[in-house]
Structures
1.
Amino acid sequence: MKQTENKQMDLLLGDLARRTGVRSVAPEDHSAMHLDADELNSYAEQALPAAARARYTSHLAECASCRKIVSELTSASGANVREDSVSQNTSAGFRQKFGALLSPSLLRYAVPALALFAFIAVGLVALRQQLQPDFVAQNQPAASRDATIETKPADSPAEPGNFAAAIEERRSSESQTRAGKNIETKAKTGEKSETSNTATPTDSVTVTSDKDASPGKAAGVVASPSYASEPAAPPPPKPQTTHTEARTEVAARRKEEADKRDEQAREQEGARARTDDNQNQIALPQAGRGALAGQSQERLRKLEAKRASDAGAKTNDDEADTRTVSGRRFRRQGGVWIDTAYQSSTATTTLARGSEQFRALVADEPGIRAIAAQLPGEVVVVWKGRAYRIR
Amino acid sequence: MSERSEQIQNLLVAGAKRLLAHATESRSLDSDSLVPRIKSSVDKYLLKDDENASDQSIAEFIDELKADDLCLIVACERGDESAWSDLVERFTPTVRSAARSASSNEDGAQDLAQSIWAELYGLRVRADGKPASKLAYYSGRGSLAGWLRAVVAQLAIDQHRKQSRTVQTEDDADFDRLARGGGDGKELFLATAALNPEEAISDKLAGAEMQSALARSIKELSDEDRLLVKLYYFDGLRLREAGSVLGVHEATASRRLTRIHGELRERVESTLITDLGWTKTETEGAFAQVALHLEADLEPLLAAGGAVSGAKVKARK
């Protein structure tokens, strides 16, 4: 109701102004009655005493001409006032700004928001702590982790803080003397293995030594016992016997090497048995993680065994790919036995086994006959500065 | 010299000394050179309304004067060339800006600005043989820049007045005619009244009587309220601008305007009921009817006003 009345009055006043306003704005020639420039400016700048101001207000209410000037001057001076107020605001002290931050209107929203944020943060931390063991337990036996261990056994940070660290801690607290003996034993083993030609025992000792030196590489501890318990590592028997039959010249030397390896394997087996015993004692109290560690160790054993067998096979392959016959070394490349002295620039004569030329050659050079007899298939042999390709 | 006059004189001298001490540049002026100017200002703005103003209020009034601006103007009046240079250098942009605001084109603005400097320098000579400079009217109460703007605005109005005596464009005449609604202020209601002639005549009369009562009611308002109504409705200022003229915040001006609406309505109703014998119901009905017509006719009226304004601007160009 009040609003309607206000609106009606607003419309009426607007209409009245449209009818009479322009006439009153029109310049009138009674300059003597107008305010002078100083009065107008003083009024616009609010610089007059109250009584004088009231006097001029009465005139301005009637005089459109003076009112117009005052309005313009107020607009101009009002800008200055706003600028002043802005500069005052910017120069307001830190106390005022800080007070504004702590104003009730702001705190009304800020406090609940902070409480909610704190609650969420605590919840996230608690959730993360709960999830962390599961995360380790789920990922420890995973294939990808195993693959990582397999490819980078020493550098892998897998499970550094759990049972490996516990092993280290327990080891240091329970049986320092025993551990010292173990270290000595391992060191001895390492010394011996350094003299060995096989790569696997050397790896084992190196990892163990690293573990002893720094707990951060304790993942290697997991690898070493599983590797140590694998007895299949040392001698690759079958290829060696085959070679012994095939190469009578190196048979004696091979036999000596085999004997040496057997001896080393027996020594290492003894040392690793002690290490296993030691680790089994450590692993027993860790009920929950023991099973996990057992699984992991079992898996690692298999992996290491596979790696060892791969390494052995590779060694055999290397040996199978290279042969020495009649004092000459031959390398097998693409099914062809090629003399290591052979160069592509060497003049080559191609012969077929059983051909007239072949028979004539072997009749003159019995050494070539021995080579052709021991190396099956195609052979390239350099003989007296000339190469012969025998097919 | 009476005791009071002597007391005031002492206050003026002491005040002049304080002003010179506060001034950034006193321009070699002494207190005697400032006292006449200060006395004029105190008489005009303080003692005229309150002859028995306290010493403290007089001292405060003097201390609130713009010391630097006052010293500059007094020095200029005394023929200090360096003061003149400073005045021209510092306030030429202000004068140009004010002249542009008051003029419709750049040439007119330049002429106006030149006229201002001539007026200030006092090229005209008074009856006593001294130059009739406008500088003599600066009291130091407001800023010198604001005073210069006011001088420019007044001079522009004077020039416009002289021109409008001889020439009135056709557009201006049309605009005045439209705004006045033909002179009697009744066509608006008639144009939109009901088709029934009796109702149309009735509305016309009611509207005229209401307008008359409203005009009288406005005159009965207090000076400040009347000024607010004039600024807002008659001069077309926004509430913020109108509030600035009155020295109040926009929100205060809005509340004051709402109160004025209520007061005016009461006065109009009282006039219509008491003087013209209307009933309360008739008064309320008339308000509603007139407001309805005005609301309906506002759009075409504004459109017509806009068209005329456009034509006026074009004619000026």
2.
Amino acid sequence: MLHLYNVKRSEDGLSYTFTTRFNITYKLALTTYLLGEVNAFSLSLYPESEPQQVDYWIKNTVIKIIGDILAKDSNVIFYVCDSEDEREDQRHKVFEYWFVKASVGYTYIKKYNYCITSENGYNLNSSILYNADNYLENYTIDEFKIALGMS
Amino acid sequence: MKTEEKQKLVAVPAFLSKVMQDKKDIKEAIKNKKPLGELAKEKGINFATPL
């Protein structure tokens, strides 16, 4: 049985929330940005208090949210690893692991990765997720590259 | 099905700077229990609930 948390829309209608079995409440916010003419979602997930243990139910819950969003073939989600606490590489590895797990149940999700390295060696990892049937796949990736200054 | 690219840049593009700043602001707002609606107005952040 796949353990998931019950995700609710927040009272202000601007985010989603779920509370774990360890009584930690998480807020998941989706913000939108234009990639050319495509409206892409960016996902942010933060706990309201510091969790004390690893909880794989969170992974299952977030994967389901992403899978449900990308079930609509025109939807696009990109993720930028937060580098504020210098744990961006760990976050990227976790995200990659989550994607491998998600690919089993949500075979329609495709991913494009990028990593920018500054001259002083600072890495910024990010990924864009989209539905395999998205007919704007090439356009979206091209616009993504433009937004990142890669083309 | 994945493509990976690595690129060397001197500076982070404006698009990513905005995304990263928004994430930072959202994190702080959640930590301080600040309404996201207020943050949206202050910082020009577009929130969405597509589900």
